[in-house]
Amino acid sequence: MGAALSGGGSIEEHLEVLPSVLQYRWSVISILSLGGRTMILVIGATGNIGTEVAHLLVKAGATVRALARDEAKAKAALGPKVQVVQGDLEQPASLAQAMKGVEKVFLVTPLHLDQVAMKSAAIQAAKQAGVRHLVMSTGIGAGPQAGVEIGRSHGRSQEEVIATGIPYTFLQPTFFMQNMMMFADAIRGQGAFYLPLGESRVSWVDARDIALVGAKALTEAGHENKAYPLTGGEALTCAEMARTLSDVLGKTVNHVDVPLAAARQGMLDAGMPAKLADMMNELYALGPAGHLAYVADTVKSVTGQAPRSFRQFAQEHAAAFKG
Questions:
Q1: Where in the sequence is the domain holding 132, given as residue range(s)?
Q2: Distance from C-alpha of 112 to C-alpha of 69, rounded to nearest angstrom
Q3: Which of 41, 138, 288, 299 lies in disulfide reach of 142, CB 3.0 to 4.6 Å?
């Protein structure tokens, strides 16, 4: 969906998938090394976006701290160059220590019934700590008047950040390519993936490109008080994605369109709360109206690199899809 549209949304971190091997190539390392070893706190550092952000910031020369509920898991994912501190957005009192000495914050949260409150805890802790730049991942089209609840909830968080006066950058991504990894078993065993999108076009974005824009925003001047819609370079139908997977994997892969009611039941069966399943179905329902097809040039304009294509993503993750 486009930035000009009233609807907003993104499949967020609740669709956690098996982490991909975080490999990224730099033809030119364009992130500036940070004089004085700026301390940056990454909140949500064990998810698809946050892990990559932490690695990119280390590469850029920043001192990186990560907030995590599970220190051992975070240390294993992030490596020895990232300082891990225990904390929980659902326990706001735990955030003050994590914010000590921090100049900048990257914030991403999972889709959660309490995600507005969780973000609020981090936002207010950042304000109290005197943080001078907050980069937050929300969703494309996010705003208080968005046509879907996910977009409105992200919009409330954005409004709260603006009210603090902290310079901000909002990353507003569409659906993540990494969410296709939840179909890896089905693609291996059945040669199929299941999405209630019909013939809709969606401008899927690689989470690593979201992270790259976020790292740029944290390490370069000129990104303050901006909202960046983030998409891939093309809007694809599921049938086109299936053909790409078939070509890359050397076997037939089909997209199976499923009714929204069946998709909702599948989410409930997987343990998702009913309200979140309904929020997800709101997003899927935007497809037939063309609201998921918007293609932005933000990734290239901010990073100087074209966004990864779905074909690149499929090639890089072929082993997981082949088994």
A1: 39-236+289-317
A2: 16
A3: 138
Looking at residue 294, which CATH number applies to its domain? 3.40.50.720
Is 27 contained in some domain? Answer: no
Q: Is residue 308 part of a domain?
A: yes
Angle in degrees, 0-180, between the axes of helices 149-164 and 274-285, rounded to the nearest 10: 100
Of 150, 113, 110, nearest in space to 279 by CA: 150
Q: Where is 11: in which H helix or E strand? A: none
Closest among 96, 87, 156 to 131, alpha carbons compared:
96
Q: Are the C-beta atoms of 19 and 188 separated by less than 8 Å?
A: no
Single pTM value for the model = 0.88
Residue given tokens 């497809």 in the structure block? 287
Answer whether 97's CB lies under 8 Å from 87's CB. yes
Q: How many residues does the chain have?
A: 323
State how far the Cα of 84 lies from the Cα of 75, in Å rounded to an integer: 7
255: nearest Cα among 241, 234, 236, 235: 241
- The number of folded domains in the chain is 1
Q: Is residue 150 part of a domain?
A: yes
Is 192 a member of any domain? yes
pLDDT in tens, the chain (323 residues): 333 333 333 333 333 332 332 333 332 233 333 445 789 999 999 999 999 999 999 999 999 999 999 999 999 999 999 999 999 998 888 899 999 999 999 999 988 899 999 999 999 999 999 999 999 999 999 999 999 999 999 999 999 999 999 999 999 999 999 999 999 999 999 999 999 999 999 999 999 999 999 999 999 999 999 999 999 999 999 999 999 999 999 999 999 999 999 999 999 999 999 999 999 999 999 998 899 999 999 999 999 999 999 999 999 999 999 97
Q: In angstroms, rounded to a whole number, what is the distance separating the alpha carbons of residues 43 and 51?
A: 10
- Pairwise CA distance, residues 203 & 235, whole Å: 4
